[in-house]
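Fold sample X.
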Amino acid sequence: MAFAIRAEITGIKELMQSLEKFTPAVQRKILRPALRAEGTRVLKEARAKVPVDTKLLKKSLGQRTKTYKNGRVVVIVGPRHGFKQVVKGVAKNPVRYAHLVEYGAKPHSISARSVIATRKMVAGKLHPGFPGRLVLTRAYKTALNGAAERMAARMAQEIEKLAAKGKLKVS
């Protein structure tokens, strides 16, 4: 049950235009560390804000940097697979309930199938629902303040590093 929150960093058009003089491979080598650093800031902020019930969701939060063939670099922050645990006789998998923590749930009737799985509620009753915590939304909004300046500084560091190694290729 994946969900997506899209965040774009404003004020980096000039940075992206300045990268166009380099080859696509060099552009990726400059962009990936800068974006990964911003993703780490969002991840730390999200871990600080996530509600702690079993600490399972907090432990499962992670990030992944993905580079597409067209040169686009994306950082994905969210729950990772492989953190399924049995808590009080019920299997919990953060990937399957993270969207509920983020956005909440509307009141709804409970089916007989879910009663068998949880063994808690009687079929036909109404679940009251609950508001979302907006953990990742708040995390990226607070963590990305001033991101353009930090990215510019990090990109400058990466350009200097590549220049020192002699790997700075201009297209």
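Fold sample Y, listed below.
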Amino acid sequence: MKQSKHPRLGNREAFHIVSAGRRVSWKGFEALEEVGRRHPHWKVSIASDLPKEELYALIRDADVFVLNSQYEGLPHILLEVMALAVPIIATRVGGIPELIVDGITGLLISPNDDEALYKALRDVEENTLSATARAVAGYKFIKDGVLMTREEIEQNIQTAIKVCDILGVQP
């Protein structure tokens, strides 16, 4: 099996995709599970009715959190995930674009677009430094109320690449 390259998590055998919420059709869990089956090393976990601490532990262990809804208001779970500095992919519905700035604090996709979801998951898996930079920008936004610019994120990525070069590790 392929090892995850996620810099927060070290090596493991699965790319862990997490989502959470009530099991209702408009949450898009079935589509996420179907997309997740495209790769044998992708593991999809859907949290429903977990105690808060168990939910946070599951999210902290994730390589990416996905909110694949067809409808949302202002989902508090995204605030919680941002506070945990976990990469996010979410649909461009309801109040989500007010929380997730595409390419800055996460990745936004259209609802009911399995191909866009697949591509976004591949992007997070293959571009872990960018995904981590977006997660840090989301954390900073929640913590300090400051939204990083694309230039600041790119600068952070370049700095991380230089540090990896100095340490002789692969980003």
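Sample Y note: The first strand starts at residue 15 and ends at 20.
Also: Confidence is low (pLDDT under 50) at residues 1-10.
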